[in-house]
Design a protein that fits this description.
The chain is mainly α. It has one domain. It is 45% helix and 5% strand. Strands 1-2 form a two-stranded antiparallel ribbon. The radius of gyration is 13 Å and the shape is globular. The two termini are 20 Å apart.
Length: 75
């Protein structure tokens, strides 16, 4: 995985994560939702998104992975 260093993309990620209070900005697949319930019982999707924002704002790294799933890919 490559660390995200592009300041414009990083700004976009932070902007999306800062909207954690609203639905539609941080979305979970069924698999991700099941993982969250199994591994972080008691955390909601909203709280998890808030934690992601806190992590990034405190200097945490984002690894950028090119999307290959057809349903999410722009190609």
């Amino acid at each position: 995985m490559a660390r995200l260093t592009d300041p414009e993309k990083l700004r976009c990620y932070k902007n999306a994560l800062s909207n954690y209070k609203f639905s539609g900005y941080v979305n979970f697949t069924q698999v991700a939702w099941e993982w969250l319930r199994r591994n972080l019982d008691g955390y909601t999707q909203k709280r998890f998104a808030e934690l992601l924002l806190e992590y990034v704002e405190e200097g945490g790294e984002i690894d950028e992975v090119v999307e290959t799933r057809p349903e999410w890919s722009r190609h």
